[in-house]
Amino acid sequence: MNPSKPTTVENSAVASHTTRESLTVTDNRTGRQYELPIKHGTIRAMDLRQIRVDEGDFGLMSYDPAFTNTASCISRITFIDGEKGILRYRGYPIEELAEKSTFLETAYLILYGELPTRAQLDDWTFHITHHTFIHESIKKFLDGFHYDAHPMGMLVSTVAALSTFYPDAKDIFNEESRRKQTRRLIGKMPTLAAFAYRHSLGMPFVYPDNDLSYPGNFLNMLFRTTELKYKPNAALERALDVLFILHADHEQNCSANAMRNVGSSHVDPYSAIAAATAALYGPLHGGANEAVLRMLMEIGSVNKVPEYIKRVKAGEKKLMGFGHRIYKNYDPRAKIIKRIAYEVFDVMGRNPLLDIALECERIALEDEYFVTRRLYPNVDFYTGMIYQAMGFPVTMFPVLFAIPRTAGWIAQWEEMLLDPEQKIARPRQVYLGHDQRSYIPVEHRGE
Ligand code: CMC
Prior knowledge:
The protein is mainly alpha-helical. Helix content is about 50%, strand content about 5%. The protein is built from 17 helices and six strands. It has helices at about 95-100, 105-110, 120-130, 135-145, 150-165, 175-200, 215-225, 235-245, 255-265, 270-280, 290-300, 305-315, 330-350, 355-365, 370, 380-390, 395-420; strands spanning about 5-10, 20-25, 30-35, 80, 85-90, 90-95. A hairpin with a 2-residue loop joins strand 5 (about 85-90) and strand 6. About 40% of the residues are buried. Mean pLDDT is about 95; it is low at about 1-15. It binds carboxymethyl coenzyme *A. Carboxymethyl coenzyme *A binds near residues 378 and 380.
């Protein structure tokens, strides 16, 4: 049977139980039955359209606000089992990558599907390192931002502006062009982020140092002051690299969906990445680590945690950094991050907010409200404290998420572009507004 061609079983009894990969639906409005193919655990939403009351009927649609049960694509990049707390990039467990890989190697894996050979890795690293500089004009419009402009706002704007510098990026079906934009984006995101940070401090921009690693150079562009050669602390450099690995992709989340959606109009990748970055900015997504820190500061001390949890349970507040649409178990990234937190605190000193966080976690993991809703710490619960201990201001936290996620966004975008089944994303709606009515002149309208 051709899985894309549903067969209609009109007015017939449902076939006796067999192992057919299909779903039989009875439309109780008409008594008709339909057999819809099941493939990869899904039915095709378009197969529902044949289910109609009469000829004039548009056909049945599925209603799924926030896509809670709709697969929008076939993907081979990232696998998550939220029940078991599993995360894999291209089949490799996140725990192994966090322990043994580097961010650039992992980015290559996510983008190209396989771990690079030594030669491929050297070539990739060389190209990323040699695409870190940004056009001098970008500095000029960064200067136009107010001194307290949020760096995420600056990042969204400057990455969008890159499209004006690289008009060749419009050639999205040219593999070589895509490769070039990929190198530019992964190379330049840390530079844009660091320049935004330096602008907010009123400090001169620090140019990239090609002798340093990807995270090492980023730390250099952020923190170098008078030293002739910046030497990143090895423990912090590695901690940042691991955090980058953990944030590199997370399948069809809000920002990946934004990347695919906007990219489906065939706009250039810089504009699509700006949209994805904007999606990440929100407090329910990449802005959550910032929100966690603000929450911990608001709680203020360990003895105030129970009172705060009470307010969360009363629906007045959210316990930021808890809960996940997909993970109904401990987020595997949160486990690794908790370990990194202690490694960073060993170098930089213990973050006093840690005790408040640990107490929140302890109570929440035992409390019936959180247990029954299966709310566990997510990736953002501990990252904020690590970033703060490393010397980042709170506003930089979502920016630190956007840098590595760029690799995932590009991989998702490219997969979408090359998928022959994809076209411009355009959901349907259920219209419940007014039926047609006539215009009323203003003098005849009531107050
Ligand atoms: N604190 C208190 N209650 C919560 C929380 C929370 N953090 N998260 C979910 N709930 C409750 C929610 O009120 C609902 O309760 P009820 O059934 O009584 O109405 C139930 O748990 C189910 O929650 P939901 O809002 O339907 O779940 P969702 O899948 O729509 O939302 C979420 C997922 C991540 C947006 C949400 O858990 C949340 O807002 N968490 C806090 C923000 C956060 O930490 N975000 C970072 C996500 S991980 C990084 C990323 O991917 O960007």
